[in-house]
Amino acid sequence: MTKVVLLAGGKGSRLNDINPKPLVRLGEMPLVQHVMNSYNYFGYDEFILATGHRHGDFEEYFNSIRLPYAVRLINTGEDANTGERINRIRFEVEGHPFCLSYSDGLSDVNLADVEHSFHADKSSPDLLITAVHPPERYGLMVLEENEEKTSPIKTFNEKPQRDDWINGGFMVCSPNIFDYIEKNDSFEGDSIPRIVLHQKMVGYKHLGNWGSIDTQKDLNIFMDLWNSGNAFWANGGNNL
Questions:
Q1: CA distance 161 to 177
Q2: Which of 18-32, 109-123, 214-228 has the highest mean pLDDT?
Q3: Could you give the CA distance from residue 144 to residue 5 in angstroms, rounded to a whole number?
Q4: Could you give the C-alpha distances from 123 to 48, 111, 154, 188, in angstroms and in order?
Q5: Domains delineated in the chain
Q6: Are 213 and 15 in contact, with CB atoms under 8 Å apart?
Q7: How far is Cα of residue 209 from the mean position of the Cα atoms in its chain?
Q8: Would you give the end-to-end CA distance of the chain in angstroms?
Q9: What are the φ/ψ torsions at residue 216 (nearest 5 degrees)?
């Protein structure tokens, strides 16, 4: 089964300083475990966490629980950018496609179909990104208009000026992805524009539910959904 790499090195300072952001609790488990459970629902059972900030907290947590899937922790550095973190797990996935995601985004997207669409796309992309309609504060993508499930990405801007398709995470990478990542890169701000320039990136259009937990307000909203039994991301959502 394809490996899943999760970027889990951030500090999450807008939430609290008690835990690394991926370990902030949403109900009975941390955010990153919700993301892994979503993947596991679709059969993924091997995860690599690219940690950094307070790596020891991850070791302590995952050594204390049993999970139905394998979790490998790789300390990619306290202050590394996202591109650096991806480069530092290269030896774990080299030569094979892999899934890539953040540790704070939740969705009811069919993750198995996301990967299937990557392999089925006739343009042989090096990166597929799940594109969603969001609040304005995320990186903006302009997709080529067509009726297909995936579309070539024409531009990618980290700071959007309007509401449109944005990077929802839940990505699939070819082994060539490392060719686009240079030293000290932000994956979103530096590497992705290179991939777009080479016309090797597509967007998987997801019209369902999606959200990212960046602030205490976000966390409260998701906590209400979880506690009320309306967690759209749990058990694969409604996209089977």
A1: 28
A2: 109-123
A3: 28
A4: 28, 20, 14, 21
A5: 4-229 (3.90.550.10)
A6: yes
A7: 15
A8: 19
A9: -60, -35
